[in-house]
Fold this protein.
Amino acid sequence: MLRISVLVSGGGTNLQAVIDGIENGFIENAEIVRVISSNPKAYSLERAEKHRISAMVIGKSNYPDAEARTAALIAALDEARTDLVVLAGYMSILDPKLIEAYRGRIINIHPSLIPKFCGAGFYGHHVHEAVLAAGEQESGATVHYVDEGVDTGPIILQARVPVLEGDTAESLAARVLETEHKILQEAVKTIAASEK
Ligand code: GAR
């Protein structure tokens, strides 16, 4: 069984996609052993609780010191005997120490077609606003491995969606989010299958 810890900061629809994928049998040979939120108010925490997944907050609110925060994150991942870390709407940048400790075992979902609209400052609605401002005809989502850069690790899967006339950042975000859920489920399924 692939033991997955999911790091979140917000609503957690991508977390829910992984939970659902496991519960409905699409993703085999995997379980979510822990949810860690950087934000004490994240709705993701309720989602975890509803599905009886161990959830905790490790963020600036309870660990203001960056080094202590990274140590707490590594300890929490280790304690859960994590095989795979999934960043699902996680809005902090991981310290190189954590990346080193979990090298090749951290994946991230990003709401654009990397290498476009990624890197520092490109997160959440900022991404979709930039896509619209650039007059792009398509956007999409990317699942990739995480390395020390921001959104720079090897790409696992991408999916495209059209930008439609009259799109707002919200309507584009919703279309991209739907495709995020699919490729994140697909990526986790593939990784879990390769661990059998
Ligand atoms: C998703 O669109 C995710 O790709 C994005 O935040 C949203 C979280 O939604 N992540 C980033 O921008 C990270 N750079 P969710 O909480 O409903 O999964």
Remarks:
- The mean pLDDT is 97.
- The pocket of glycinamide ribonucleotide is lined by residues 10-14, 88-89, 109-111, 123-124, 177, 180 (CB under 6 Å).
- The first helix runs from residue 13 to 23.
- Strands lie at 2-8, 30-37, 55-57, 84-87, 106-110, 138-145, 155-162.
